[in-house]
Amino acid sequence: MKQPIYLDNNATTPLDPRVLEAMLPYFTEKFGNAASRNHAFGWVAEEGVDYAREQVAKLIGCTEKEIIFTSGATEADNLAIKGVFEMYKDKGNHIITAVTEHKAVLDTCKHLEKVGARVTYLGVKEDGLIDLAELEAAMTPETILVSIMYGNNEIGVIQPVKEISAIAHKHGALFMTDATQAVGKIPVDVNADGIDLMAFSAHKMYGPKGVGALYVRRKNPRVKVTAQMDGGGHERGMRSGTLNVPGIVGLGKACELCRLEMESESIRLAALRDKLESSLSELEESYVNGNTQHRLPHVANISFKYVEGEGLMMAMSDLAVSSGSACTSASLEPSYVLKSLGLSDDLAHSSIRYGLGRFTTEAEIDQAIEVTKKAVNHLRELSPLWEMFKEGIDLSKIEWAEH
Amino acid sequence: MAYSEKVIDHYNNPRNVGTLNKDSKFVGTGLVGAPECGDVMRLQIEVGEDNVITDAKFKTFGCGSAIASSSLATEWLKGKTIDEALAIDNMDIVEELALPPVKIHCSVLAEDAIKSAINDYRVKNGLEAIALEKSHH
């Protein structure tokens, strides 16, 4: 078994060798610029891009013309939100999003607030889902965009996108979703879900880094975004810049593999995730974070009370996981996503995210369970909080010297 | 983030983990930090004749550097007089463990824990608490 075991597939996934194989010719013999219209090198590259566009469109149920290739989901989020804000300025300046969004959405919204946007940041319920009544109440005639993520990157909860898009449309607003964690993992259909704009990325679904896409609806309604980069007018004028042909071919292949294998893969991963979760729940005072019904099949986020996440990760150096603790950051602030679920800071500090993926095996999960249990028990032996808890002391009653 | 070898050594083989009888008048207990901040240290000293620290124990909730800082502190405390213990500076810990700047607060917490344990001992034995300089945070 390879060490350490990679269980951070929500951060990035390894490239599927089949994707690499599809990409390789586009680095060497098929190196042409897809925008070169007058020779074979350009045509061959363009063919590769066109085919990829079909593969991507097929995965999410749209037409090829609705796919705008970008450098990744962050760029796609920026293009969608800033582009809609600029394009629909005359209609209104209000955007609704949620506090658990990725920084690519939150910081884009914060930027727009400085240039005249009014942004509502919806809170989430204890299970990480937004409250639809709250969304409904936040809608105004000036609302031009509702941007709510499909699946959360830290806890994996899936927002009720169909209901959200219906509310947005009822009030004449567009619905945009950052679906970076969901596309390729669960069925996403832009028509069934009522999505007008959708950002996603190749490297979360076994494709290469540095490439992603923005879906922009062309019919009912026809959506337009103002370009955020000036140049040669590529991608129907919405995203200038020479196309990253090998990357795009890789994204296409990755989408095709996900479409064909998603069903069996998600069943397999959910079973492994459930095994991991139920075994780790045998540890006293461990808590699964987020809604356990509506969520992605491959992620588990668990808090082990009375141990600190970063210390725990150090004891689990055989596992590549991530923690909601931010002991290394200057602010010492734990995960804002976990805090927005109402988790106390100490539970947020005590959390570990396990992200399973296509290449995760059952033997690896078995070892992850063993390593985690050992580490949690070891650190609890060292933890004054655990000792106090065991003595029945109420930790919330202690006056801590905040520092 | 990469940890220094000494941090890893203290983390894997923490010295002097445990609990002394906090009700004993020979024992001073310092509990510093807060769960919300992601680290809590409890450091205890047992003081014998001539103000010499005969035993030291710790338990820490925190990252690897916090655990290593408190483990190192207990090692240093044993055999020292109270006055010598008071002279331990957080930068000595930073140097010994090669802590990076983002982990300096772990050493500060360890120094606070030492002083707080000494004060607990002093107060129990009818002495005045020493004013702690608030040079940080």
TrEMBL record, chain B:
Name of the protein in its database record: Iron-sulfur cluster assembly scaffold protein IscU
One Pfam family of this chain: NifU_N
Sequence ranges assigned to domain NIF system FeS cluster assembly NifU N-terminal in this UniProt record: 2-125
Metal-binding is among the record's keywords: yes
Known role: A scaffold on which IscS assembles Fe-S clusters. It is likely that Fe-S cluster coordination is flexible as the role of this complex is to build and then hand off Fe-S clusters.
NCBIfam families attached to this UniProt entry: iscU (TIGR01999)
Alphabetical keyword list: Iron, Metal-binding
Molecular function (Gene Ontology), one example: iron-sulfur cluster binding
Family: Belongs to the NifU family.
Biological process annotations from GO: iron-sulfur cluster assembly
Transmembrane residue ranges: none
Organism: Pedobacter kyungheensis
